[in-house]
Amino acid sequence: MEDICDSGIAAMAVKCVAIWPSLKDLFLAVVIVQFS
């Protein structure tokens, strides 16, 4: 059970790290639109 949890958490962390740059770009785009 612990192995499954660990691998799940690791996969989730990798997914978050992979998604984060695009989220940051999206956030910046929204800010630019709001203040332009």
Keywords:
1 helix; mainly alpha
Describe what this molecule looks like in 3D.
- The structure is a single chain.
- The mean pLDDT is 78.
- It is rod-shaped and about 50 Å long.
- The termini are far apart.
- It has 1 helix and no strands.
- By secondary structure, it is mainly α.
- The protein has one helix at 2-35.
Task: Estimate the mean pLDDT confidence.
Answer: 78
Q: Specify the overall morphology.
A: rod-shaped
Unreliable sequence segments: none
Largest sheet: none
Number of strands: 0
Give the helix proportion (percent range): over 70%
Can you count the helices? 1
Order of helices and strands: H
User: How big a fraction of the residues is strand?
Assistant: under 5%
The whole-angstrom Rg is 16 Å
Structural class: mainly alpha
